[in-house]
Amino acid sequence: MADTTDRAKDALAGVKGGATELATKAGDQAGTAASAAGAKAADLASKAGEKAGELAAKAGDRAGDLAAKMSDKAGDLAVKANGKAGELATLAGDKAGELAGRAREAMPPEVKDAADKVVAGARNRPWLAAAAAAGLLLVWRAVRRKNRK
């Protein structure tokens, strides 16, 4: 019986030794797998970072191009607006002169003297005369529109 007990103990020791050896091998394999997984994850993260950088650079380039195009378009519109404003100012000046001539012809002499004083003052301050002419033009157009309807 002692012989059987010794054999059982030897078998148990062998199983424990085999289990320890298997656990060691499993631990080594798990460490290797974890290391490989970590390296793969680091590689993927690096590639993802590079791709994100490329996409951000492309988006920045596109935004810059769009901003440049919009700036050019705004410049063109400003030039056109200035041209139209010049044309309108010339037209307003012409119409104002015409209206002033008509009004002067219809005025009594006392009013003409007062108007001459106003004109002399306007020559000293041309911006005021331009503003008044623009105002007269706007009133004239408003009256014309109202009469059309």
Task: State which percent range the strand residues make up.
Answer: under 5%
Main sheet makeup: none
- Terminal CA distance: 129 Å
Q: Please give the radius of gyration in angstroms.
A: 48 Å
Q: What this model shows, in words?
A:
With about 150 residues, the chain is mainly α. It has one domain. Helix content is about 95%, strand content about 0%. It contains three helices and no strands. It starts with a helix and ends with a helix.
Write the layout of secondary structure elements.
Elements: H1 2-106, H2 109-124, H3 126-148
Helix pairs in contact: 1-3, 2-3
Organism: Sphaerisporangium siamense
Keywords: Cell cycle, Cell division
Protein name: Cell division septum initiation protein DivIVA
Comma- or semicolon-separated keywords:
149 residues; mainly alpha; 3 helices; cell cycle; cell division; Cell division septum initiation protein DivIVA
Brief overview:
The chain is mainly alpha-helical and 149 residues long. The chain has three helices and no strands.
